[in-house]
Each structure stands twice: as structure tokens, then as C-alpha cells.
Amino acid sequence: MKRSVIIFAVILFFIPVSVISYRVFVLHYPFFPVAFGKIWHVSMEARWAAKEKNIDIEMGLPANYGGRRVMGERITSGALDFNFFYEEQNRYGLWSGSVDSGEKGSISYHASVLVPSRKPPEKPPALEPYPKGIVEEKRALAERLTAGWKRLSPPERLRAVANAASGEWRPTPPAPADLQEWTALQQEHGPRVSFLILLRAADLSARIVEGLFLDDTIAQGFHSWLEVWTGKKWESLSLETGKIYAHPSKLLPLVIGGYPPFLTAGGSLSEMRWTISQRMQDYWRLHFEHVRGSSRLLDRLSLFHLPAEFQQAFRILLLVPIAALIITILRNVVGFPTFGIFMPVLMALAFRNTGLYYGLGIFTGIMLLGYLLRLGMDKLQLLLVPRLSMILTFVILALAFAALVGSKFDMKGIMAVGLLPIVILTMTIERFFILIEEAGLREAVRTVLGSAAVASISYWIINQEPIQFIFYFYPELLFGVAGIQLLLGRYTGFRLSEIFRFRELRRPS
Amino acid sequence: MIFRAIRELREAGVLGMNGRNAAFILASNDRSRYPSADDKVLTKRLALDHQVPTPPLYHVVEHHGDIAGFEEGLQAHPEFVLKPARGSRGNGIVLIKDRTPAGFVKQSGGVIPKAEFAYHISGILSGIYSLGGQEDKAIFEALIHPDPVFAAVTHVGVPDVRIIVYRGVPVMGMVRLPTKDSDGKANLHQGAIGAGIEIESGTTLTAVHRSRVITHHPDTGNPVSGIQVPHWGKMLLMAARAFEMTGLGYLGIDMIIDKDRGPLLLELNARPGLAIQLANRTGLRERLEKVQKAPPKVLDKPETRVSWALETFRIKEV
What we know:
The complex is a heterodimer.
Chain A: H1 3-25, E1 37-50, E2 54-61, E3 69-76, E4 81-87, E5 90-98, E6 104-116, H2 136-146, H3 154-165, H4 176-201, E7 206-213, E8 217-219, E9 223-229, E10 234-237, E11 251-256, E12 262-265, E13 267-279, H5 281-292, H6 297-300, H7 308-317, H8 320-334, H9 342-354, H10 356-378, H11 384-408, H12 412-415, H13 422-462, H14 465-473, H15 477-489, H16 496-501
Antiparallel strand pairs in A: 1-6, 1-13, 2-5, 2-12, 3-6, 4-5, 7-9, 7-11, 8-13, 9-10
Chain B: H1 2-11, H2 17-28, H3 35-38, H4 40-49, E1 57-61, E2 80-84, E3 94-100, E4 103-106, E5 111-113, H5 114-126, E6 138-141, E7 160-166, E8 169-177, E9 193-197, E10 204-209, E11 212-214, H6 232-246, E12 250-258, E13 262-269, H7 276-280, H8 284-292, H9 302-313
Antiparallel strand pairs in B: 1-6, 2-3, 2-6, 3-4, 4-5, 7-8, 7-12, 8-9, 9-10, 10-11, 12-13
Helix pairs in contact in B: 6-9
């Protein structure tokens, strides 16, 4: 490789390394600015009515526990006072005050909670005693029922208990007399308590958790579930079905340990509503505050100073060079054909409006329609520019028609073609046609597939919020991208596809 | 596994697309010299200056205003070919074998009325057949009667001979034979087959059809190897002269063999494809690197380059 190219590439790599080092070590930027997880905005509103001279409302609220971080809390208390207090890992809000009997008011709580996608490790808990009011003989019954599972590993034991809770005793069913007794116990104490008894008898630590189910939703109250320690982590199970939740990061615990999620004394609480929504903006705002307050040169040069309405565009724009890099690799190293560089990138940008599947569908539809149109027009022998304009016109007509169909069937993706680079698509139709003529259908279809694949990969990349964020935060990384592009520009080795193409020429040594 | 395959390709001296583009096309072909390969009128003029025969040029129409008078330029020639100067892959070409009061008789038999023929010329001038869409010129040249030597291995269409020339040294050649698959066109991408040529003797070797080595023509079933290419020595010399003609260091020269006029330069290609390696079952890079190490004196004259190439690239008997 040429020396000058290597020197230039080294300079390009050196720029981001030095600027980022400066930011991290001198300006104390976070080395890895992305929090891995999702930010949820939770807000609670409720009305209270006093029956006595004093009212106390205690409610479990999100806490910085289990890797979660609570940010930007806002509380309204109206006529009441507000305090936080803690009990073990639980954090409560206490609204209290002297009021007139019969007085009414409302309270609210708003916060953003960062829920990590991976929980930090926790200490193993001590084994809790049996639930209250369980007499010796009932304990003995539970011990007998679980005796066969003692040698299983905790997760397997948990599965056995969960199966038993739903009536499947494996591997060996208990004696019929025991089973009858157990059914009676279940009826007496209810499924929750009997589940806990069985877990305790199987030497598994378990606790009931009251909290919220994180989904873009409005909840009238709390959601409760069970957490069981399986040796390394707490597994979350549904109390109703005994099934393990597939996405425990969608559960936000508020009160752990079987305590009620809220208590009122001297009055009542009504019309409680939790509004839960996922927030995208909050990381950005978090760092924005930090950068805005700084007078350092690099901070003042930060893209965070752009007006908010332009920031969104630059987040995406900064990732376009990475998409171009991917295209370079797919074309020159793998040997995948695409229609130029810009077409797949523009497609990827357009897919942001339509979504990937509709986007690919529209792309395929337009290519097909355009091809047929072009085939029909070939006989007419039109000149280039009017020919392209005509295809463009028909493509737009077809899109308008598709949008009407989409609105009929309520498919938003089809209607949202606004940003679709129709002019580029029209040129692509032309090139597709020429390619079929020159290199045959096989090659042309290969190129279409290559472009679609590259567009999909680029789409995926530019939609990764952590990547968007890292590049927005450290735009100097683009120099590094340019460095890789530079080195690829001097890659003169074989393309992977040529291994196949020239297989007849390979000379085993 | 991949690394082994790559090493095996490298050891076979195969030239890949990236290697061709960076080490040969970018390094030896100056952009400003591309027109001498792309513009057929310019190519012809340069060929004339360098004693390289081309199909005789009868007439050129450059402007729409000149279309009306095009027949005057063709008075002496009952048969001719009309083609766009920048066209490629045979698009827009019309072969005329005779004329009647009704119009021009195509080689395939149909008659084109004169008005329609003029309209076709106008289309060429407007750039219908030039892929970039730029304005173009219409060329009238002599109709070729191909030498029958490849008749047994040609289904339809006209075969041609491609020679790769690096720094004026002919390094590899092949005969491109049209097939039914290629619709009569001598283009390997479209399914034509390419038969390698042993450079010293000028006889054909096995052929490549869509990246696969074959020994017989897929349509006629006749063997493709062992055919003596006529005028081979002359063709090598013509190819070698294309370097002085164009100044392009890495070039594909396409020639056609007329049964009366002998080999004629048809067109030049500044980005010749790599399938010729499969046709000859030999890597190009190996040979190109030998040219890079050739004694400078050899490279001075076309004649010495050809004899050096024959000596260096001939297939030694084992």
C-alpha cells in the first residue's frame, strides 16, 4: 500500500483519538456516552378525599435500585406536604397534611426512569420464613410435595414449582391423599400464598413485587408479580400463570417484599392513573444540559448548540458516511453489486418514514412497474430526459394510487412515502433496464437484491440510537470513518465473490 | 477456508476487479485519453495514422441539419453499416446490404423506408443509444463479411477477437463467439462464450461460458479448441500499436476478421473485463507483472513487444 495513503489514514485516525481523549480526560465527558437501556416516562395522577382532620398517603415510587436511574422527578402535592422515605430497597412518597374533613385535592408524580437492558449482579438473599399463619402440618405437606425436587438446580426447581402451581406435577405425581390435602390448602389460602409456600418448601427465595408494566399505556393501578432467586438473579414470574416473563426489563418494581403499593390513612384515594410512555429525548437532554452550561471551546462547538429542530436531521446525517462505508465494503470487499452509492443510502433514509417492510415492498413494486413501463416505452424510442420524466410521472401516479389503497386499509406505511427519493428511483429504473439489456436479468436482479440488502443494513444502522448518539456526541469520529474509507480505497485484493468466479483458476499449492 | 482460497487465487496469478481498477486502469489509463477509446470516429482517425486497419468509414453525420444529405456520402456503397459513435453493446446498429426505391434492405431481409431510416439517424444524434444520454454522431462504415473460420462454432452473429494490451505488449487473447443465449452478441456478460488463444501459435484453447470452462460450443456442439485464428501475427501487431495510438496503458482491443480485408480494428475498451482469464485458464496478473519487469528496450517498438510477448507467454510443451 502507498506510504502516503497510510500516513494520511494515520492522521485521520489520530484526530478522533486525540479529540475524544481530550474530551474524556479534560472535559470529563463520559467515555461511553450511551446508557444501555430504555428511558420510560412514568406519571401518576390521583385524587384524594379526606375523611378526618389529617390525611396520609404513602405510595411506592421508583428508586435508584437494580441499575435503574430516576431522573427529572416532579411532584405536585397541592395543599399537602411531601416527603420521601425509605424502607429497605423501597422508596416511598408520603403526602400528608392537616385538612378539613371532606376536603378534596389531587396529587401527581412525574419522572423519567432509565431501565438498563442488563441488570447488575445482586447479592443472594436469605431464605424467608413461611408466610404467616401456615401451621406445622401444612409446612410438612409442602415439604413432602417438594421432596423429589431437592437435588435439582434452582432454575429447574423453579420450573417444577411453576408447573405444579398450574397442576402439572413432574417428574412424579405426589400421593393422591397429599394432592387432595394440597387442593384444600390452595382453596383456603388462595393461589398466591400456596405458590409461595411451595417455593419456600423447595428452598427458593421468593418475593412479591408491586410495580408497573412498562408499555406505552395508561394503567389504573399497580401490577404485581413474583420474583424468585435462582442462584444468580431474580427471575420474574407471573402470579397468575406461574410463567417466567420473557422481557423482565418491561417491569418496573416499586414496592418489593409483599407490602401494599400504597396506603391511605384518614381519607381515600381515587381515580389513580399511571401514564407510561417510552422517551427517546431524554438521553439527549441529559447531555445537552451538561454541554450547554460549559464555556469550553469544544463544548461551544458541540452540535448540541444547534437549534432543536435541526438536531434531528444531523443525528441521521452523521450516520450516512457509515452507511457509505458499509456500501464500500459490500461492493469492493465482498463483491456485492449495488446501484451506485447514493441510491441505497437514500432508500435507507426513506425507509425511516415507511418502515423497513413497507419500504422494501414499495421499492420492489416501483422497480417492477418501472421496468414494465420502460419495456413498453422502449418501442417508442423516446429521448432520455422526456423518457425519464414520463417514468417519473407514472411512478408518482402509482404512489398516489397506492396511498389511496393504503388509506382504505389503514396502512400508514404505504401512505408515508413523502421522503422516498422518487427521482433517484426513476434513475434506478433506467439503470436496471440497461443492466438487463447489457448483462442479463440475472445480473440485474442480483444488483437489485444487493441494493435492497445494503439499504436494509444502512437503515438498521442509522436507526440505532446509541450509534446516533455516539456520533452526535463525538462527531470527530467521522474522521476515523474517512480513514477506513481511505484504506479501503487502496484495497486491491480479491473480492470474496471472485473466489467463486475464478474457482477454475485456483492453483492449490 | 476463505484465506486458503484467496491464497490459491493469488498463487495462480489471477487479477481481481480491485486489482485491475487500482493497479492497472487507474495507474496506466489517463482519463483525458479515454475519448480515443470511447469515440469511434476518433479511434478510426487515430488508427489510420498508425497503419491499423479499421472498417472503412464512408460518412459521418454530426448534426440534424446534415441528415437530409446523408445519402450523397453513400452513393458509391450499396452495402454499409450505420452505428452510433458512442454506442456500446451493438445497440442502434443497422446492417444494410442493398437499397431499393422503397428504402434500405437490411441484412436480415426487411426493408426500412427512407423516412424511417432518417428518423433512426436523428435518434442516434439525440443520444438514444449513448448510455449517458449525450448527443452523438452517426457513423456509416463498410459492412463486414466475417471470415468463415469460426462458422462451426458460431450460432448466429459475428465473432470477434479481443486482445488485452498492457504498455503496448499483447498479453492475452480470446475469440468471443456469440450464442443463442447471448442473442447473437459477442458479449460474455450476455452469455457469449470466450475461447482462449495460445499466444504463440494463435490456436484456440478451451472456452468460458458464464464463468464455467467448456470444451464445446453450447449451440453447435462443435469443439471450440484447436482452431487456427487467421492473421494472428498481424492482429498481435495491430493490438500492440493501439498503445501508441491512444496512450492508454491498459486496453482491450476488439477486432473482427473480414474474409476479404483481413483483421480490422472494431473498437477499443479502456476497462476490459476479467473473464479472459477463465477463457485462457491463466491469471492475468502473472503476465502483467512480467511486462512490468520487461527490459525497457523491448517496450520501444510494437514489433519487439510482440516478439517478446510470444517468447514470454507461449505455453511451453511439457
